[in-house]
User: Fold PhnB-like domain-containing protein from Streptomyces monashensis.
Amino acid sequence: MEIASSQKITTFLMFEGDAEEAMTFYVSLFDDAEVVHITRYGAGGPGKEGSVQHATFSLAGQQFMCVDSPAQHDFTFTPSMSLFVQCANEAEIDRLFAALAERGTELMPLGQYGFSPRFGWVNDRFGVSWQLNLPA
Assistant:
C-alpha cells in the first residue's frame, strides 16, 4: 500500500545581497519561468531593507527558493551541486551558455565530450553551477 506524502523537496539558493538580481536573470533565460512569490525585509528586519527575505520562482516547471541571508558565511555555492539543463537544440545551448558564462567561470567549455554531442559546464556570475547538455 502506497502512502501519499505531502513532502516536497525544493532547491534552495542562498545569496548575500543579490538574490533578486539572480532570480530575475534566471527567469529571463527560460520560456516557462516566473517569479511566484517574493517577501522583502522591512526597515526593522535582520536583513537589509528591501532585500529578499524569501522568494519562490520557477524555471521550466521546477520551483526554486532563494533568500538574501543577513549573515555572512565562509561558504558559497559549489559545482558539486549544479543545475542540469537538457537543451532542445544547438541555438538554445549556445544562448544559455553565453548568458550564464558572462562574468562567470567556464568549467568545461561547450564541446563534444564523448558522453554528449554538445555539453558545457559553467559557474554563473552569482556562483551557481550549471551543466548544459544537448542530448544525442
